[in-house]
Amino acid sequence: MTDSHFLYNKFIFDYNSIYMQKFKASITGVAGYVPDYILTNQELERLVATNDEWITSRTGIKTRHILKGENMGSSHMGVKAVQILLEKTNTNPMDVDLVICATTTPDFVFPATANLIAAEIGAFNAFSYDMQAACSGFLYAMWAGTQFIQAGTYKKVIVVGADKMSSIIDYTDRATSIIFGDGAGAIMLEPSPDEDGIHDAFLRTDGRGWVHLHQKAGGSRRPPSLETVQNREHYVYQEGAVVFKHAVTGMAQAAEEILTRNNLKGSEVDWLVPHQANKRIIEATAQKMELAPEKVMLTIDRYGNTTNATLPLCLRDYESQLKKGQKLVFAAFGGGFTWGAIYATWAYNG
Ligand code: UT7
Question: What is the pTM of this model?
Fold first, then answer.
């Protein structure tokens, strides 16, 4: 090897090791909020032609929380989650650099729900924006926030997932009304002092899947009109069985890819943090990864599918069991189609 080759290689090595050590992003706090009202399977039995046995065996859902009351959107729950996060992490809101809100049910078409949350929590030194990727939104937002920390641009990034799914659910449709719930969750991302943190992401979209899962009206293609309201086009439209098949394949592919890229065997993973759309999809993903059931975070029984809040609510509910250095694989699939997985090692003892 010539001197110049040696120097060049040494430079790359030093640069990589400094870069990796200095700017690894880690999750330094988690928080969540679900509204008080609990919608049970028994109450749904009175609204649509369904029953507790069908819902439980096909989805794993028993209850979901619903935000009741006038003039309260997703930001209401996002603010609550972030306020708890600030308190838990002892963070002054004026020190927050960026707030990213993953939501599919924004308070308004504009401005962004993240703008409303940042204002309400008093983060006036921050900029903020929304991420829209349906049920994979939190995964995408977490990876976006990670980039700002890794690049050394910012030191405190809040990623919040908040959805008032009840605002776009038709409670006369048994196919969708049984699945979704409302909630919010948030994480703090900061530079890691060591090697623990967010390591890798595998993210994909296939926009051809839009036809199978979308809201037909309310956007620029079909603005709201008397006709769209009368046709019930402002609700979630889902071809359940088609989405189910793609979700099983997509989550498994993403999880497998992230394991292979990081030289990991399924047995080495401590926790699967899966999007909570259907217990059977989660079990299929865990099976593909050869993961024992006790390593899989499950909250779907009590919250249903809260879209962008499922992943942070899992972290919130399992936080006390998490140990520093444990290996976590996040995985999600949603409308778009969007899907992916993130590999992280946990940064603190819960
Ligand atoms: O998070 C975003 C991504 N979304 C997902 O990942 C959701 C993926 N899909 C699913 O989770 C499932 O497809 C559902 C839970 C939505 C539906 O379960 P399924 O096992 O795929 O049921 P299906 O749609 O194939 O319907 C089977 C039967 C049908 O009756 P017939 O045609 O066989 O007589 C439905 O009409 O079940 C009927 N059905 C119900 N029965 C009682 C559908 N919904 C209900 C219900 N109660 N709520």
Answer: 0.93
